[in-house]
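2024-03-11 09:14:02 DEBUG pipeline.ingest accepted 1 chain
2024-03-11 09:14:02 DEBUG pipeline.ingest length=843
2024-03-11 09:14:03 DEBUG pipeline.predict start
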Amino acid sequence: MRENISLTFNVQSLKLGNRLLLLLLLISVNCIKLQAQVQLGNEENPIDYSSPKEYTIGGITTSGIKYLDDNVLKTLSGLTVGDKIKIPGEKISKAIENLWKQNLLADVKIEYTKLEGTTIFLNIAMIERPRLSKFSFTGVSKSEANKLREQINLVSGKIVNENLVRTTSYEIKEYFTEKGYLNTEVKIDLTDDSIPANSQSMVINVQKNKKTKIHNIKVEGITVFKEGNIRHFMKNTKEKRWYNIFSSSKFIRDNFEKDQLRIVEKYQEKGYRDAKVVFDTVYAYSDNMINIDMKIDEGNKYFFRNITWVGNTKYRSGQLDTLLGIRKGDVYNQKRLDVGLNMSENGRDITSLYMDDGYLFFQINPVEIQVQNDSIDLEMRMYEGKQATIRKVTVTGNTKTNDKVVMREIRTKPGELFSRNDIIRTQRELAQLGYFDPEKLGVNPKPNQVDGTVDIDYVVEEKPSDQIELSGGWGAGQVVGTLGVTFNNFSARNIFKKGSWSPLPAGDGQKLSLRFQTNGIYYQSYNASFTEPWLGGKKANALSVSVWRSVQSNGQSSELRQSITISGVSVGLGKRLKWPDDFFSIYYQASYQYYSLNHYSTSFLFSDGYANNLNFQVSLTRNSVNQPIYPTAGTSVSVSLALTPPYSAFSAIDYKNAPDQVKYKYIEYHKWKFTTSWFTPLIGKKFVLASKASFGFLGFYTDDIGQSPFERYYLGGDGLSGYSLDGREIIAHRGYGNGQLSPTVGASIYNKFTMEFRYPLSLNPSATIYGMGFIEAGNSWTRFSEYNPFEVKNAAGLGVRIFLPMFGLLGLDWGYGFDRTIYDPLKATYHGAEFQFTLGQQF
């Protein structure tokens, strides 16, 4: 009579933490069961389970397996023919555990099939788990389903078990909880599938239900702040109110916990260093609304008392006290302490002081050495270390831009002392190039404390920087189209190098721009420019060369033709300065234009003849803006002067009575311009206030000649539309039409002020988008004697900017002008609304 006695271990539903304990329990139970069966089946069977006995494995078979390799399973069990085992004993239980850990089986049993003396024959009986063949979603949109596929990481071929079902359900609920759907229900249906064999398909039924919003937040135990203050401190946990337009009222536990930390930080800033949230609960108010109750233990208010410095040899304690800025009796403020030690945005903290002088290994640890009543004594324990020297500087990630272009912008040089400020400036300079994603710029210092050196690796990620300009505007009663291409990372030296055209030679940081503007037979304009930012390759001396030609006419030929033709060339040289600081630069330019007029009387002081305009310009600029596309900090200030030689001072001609051709043969003027922009982060640094002001003045040398007929200002509109004739400057002023705030012949003086309240919608380098609300005020005048900086035309409105690397900056604005225009002074008091679209130009 054959007896199949089983030692069974099934832990399909057990938790990992209890596996070992239950394993021993089940084995012992099965051993008792085995013993009872043996005694009942054959009293002469020599196995005695009350007394463990050693056996030799004579053979191992498997059963119940259809798709798995039984030889592999035997190996995984750890049992081999010839092994000596004890029954009962650990090897059997270990074999079951080994197989179970593979997560391939639904059940495992080890049986003995035959016993010959001390030789035992075993059979491993197993039930395979099915594998996932496919899965699908119901109750969600196609886009949601695609995102869920990424979230749950579910793939065909996975073993289907209860853990997989629970994990999938949990991850889906977590995904929708983050979206504000706290009552999401998930039901998973499994269906046997024959292709492939032993598989199951999964249908995931999702019922999101309504979004869960926060109805009310109640706070107890507060005396220092009002309940409204506590709600304000929580940035991402807001009640559902109509005025919370910039924040969501959905409840997310992680955000709620972070907001609790913010509350504690606010208390610590007031001296309540022991403040904590001791209780919080979330409960339903309605089907889709919840309430939150919190209780805060404020603790006592503390003050700074004595602050001592230990380990400082480089700087005196008095110097460090001054820089820290904390005095005896000040309210204990953890944030203020952190900022003074190592977290100041402007670099005025103790750690920056040391690290800017090479002390890379500097450490400071504030220790509370005594707390007495409401006063705290601090000991600043410092380790200065030795100054670190830069050993090697590398750059990675520049797949298009040549190493030399990046390295020349880097301010940390091998052999110099380490400086954190130089690293920050380097990151700014790399961002200003416009070739790399500013959000991905990184730096990896690799210090070696043994020899006091550091290697610095700058990490960059290329982004498209070349641009195509396609724009349409309205000027002189006609549509003007513009086509332009700008290659911002051009390489002139590789023009004739084989294989470098992809599509153009690039990587040397040069700029090549080509632009064509026309409205058909009436107007054509061509210009080309080239800039080498590092002339000679050793210093940041920028050489710029431009040539242009424009023709405007009535479209007629021969004696009926009325036209003006302008040809010009300019050469400029820019240089970075080190004084007053290294944010300054100076730019010199010589420019020549030749004007030829043929019966052309529109907008000019003379209609026939020619004129020469040779002028020299110098511009002084200080630019500390952190990045060019969406700046969030820094300022830009520029002062420029352009002037021509005072020809009339060296001539005996009576210009007062001279004909126009003689009077304007050589144009003379002096032109002044001042512009400034500054950027201030607001409200968690997401919002940015961009403030701008500009002023321009066109002067003359003698009353006998008067104002130049060229180089005048035209204020109003989008700043893009219109003809760029006669050196005119088209100044944008939203809310009004093009040129409507200047006389027909142009103005000789203007000023303009702008405030923009910006918010980023996307900072992705492939599509940077931000919205804004703006207020603008400006005006222009014919003579300086009429100038009144407070007599301005006001406007306000909304706009959006989209920066696409290929096309540059696109803008759409709705502006409302509140005042009469110079162009049409008989209009109603309120000018009205204007929609304006721009491409390729930033206000």
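2024-03-11 09:14:41 DEBUG pipeline.report DSSP finds 14 helices and 35 strands in the chain.
2024-03-11 09:14:41 DEBUG pipeline.predict end
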